[in-house]
Amino acid sequence: MPNMRDLKRRIRSIRSTQHITRAMKMVAAAKLRKAQAQVTAARPYAEKLEEVIGRLIGAVDPETQPLAAAREVKKAGYVLITGDRGLAGGYNANLIRLAEERLQAEERPVALVTVGRKGRDYFRRRRVEIVRSFTDIGDEPDLIQARELARQLVELYLEGSLDEVNLIYTRFYSALRQVPQVDRLLPIQASGAGEDGGDYIYEPSPAEVLKSLLPRYCEIKVYQALLEAKASEHGARMTAMDNATENAAEMIDKLTLSFNRARQAAITREIVEVVAGADALK
User: Residue 278 to residues 221, 266, 270: CA-CA distances in angstroms?
Assistant: First the structure.
C-alpha cells in the first residue's frame, strides 16, 4: 500500500491535471459556440446552391461541363480533414479509421489530400501517396482558405492527376454526436440532378450560368466541410475534457479515501505502540 507521502503527491498531481482539463473544456465550449453558429449560418446557403446546381445540371448536358462530366476513374482522390491537435477523444481516430477502410476497399489507384497534421502524419508513415497537404487551418476556417483548397483540388481534377475527388470529414450534429462521412466533390453530382429546369428562365443560358456556378459550388462545399469538421473537433474536445475532469475527480476521491485510511492506520498503530509501552512500564 502506498505511503501517505506518495498518496498526497498523486492527489496534487491529479488535481493539477484536473484544473488543466477543466480550463480546456471551457475554452473548447467557447470555441464550439462560435463554430456551431458558423455551421448553422452556412448550411442554408450551401443547400440552396446545391439545389440550384441540381436544376441546372438537369437543364443542360453535364458532359459539356468539365467539372460535372463523368469519366473513367484511373485514380481516385480522397480529401481527409482531421485536426492539427489531439486531446479530442476519438475524433481523429474515427476519421483515420474511415479513411483506411475506404482506401483498402478501393480497387483503383488512390491518392490522399490531407488537411490537418494528424491525418498527414498517420498516412505518411504508412507510405500512402499524399499529393497535397494543408496544416494550420486554425480554429475558425475562412472562405479564403476554402477557396485555395478548392482551387487546388479542381486543378488536380482538370489536369487529370485525380479522376474523382471525395471529402472525408465529420458532420456536426451536436456536442455529443459527430458522424464521420464521405461526400463526393468531383465530378459534381448535386442533389436534384436529372430534374428539368422547370419554368425557370436563365439569363444568360443555363450552360453559362452553370459554368460560372460550378467553381463556386466547389468552394462552398469545401468551406462547409471545414466548418463542420472544426465544429465537430471542438465538440469532441469539449466532451473529452469533461470526461477527463470527471475521471480526475473520481480518482481524487479514491486516493483521498486511501490517504485517510492510511492516516487512520498510522494513528491506530501509534496508539497501540503507546499503550504497549505503558503496559511494559508497569
Answer: 85, 18, 12
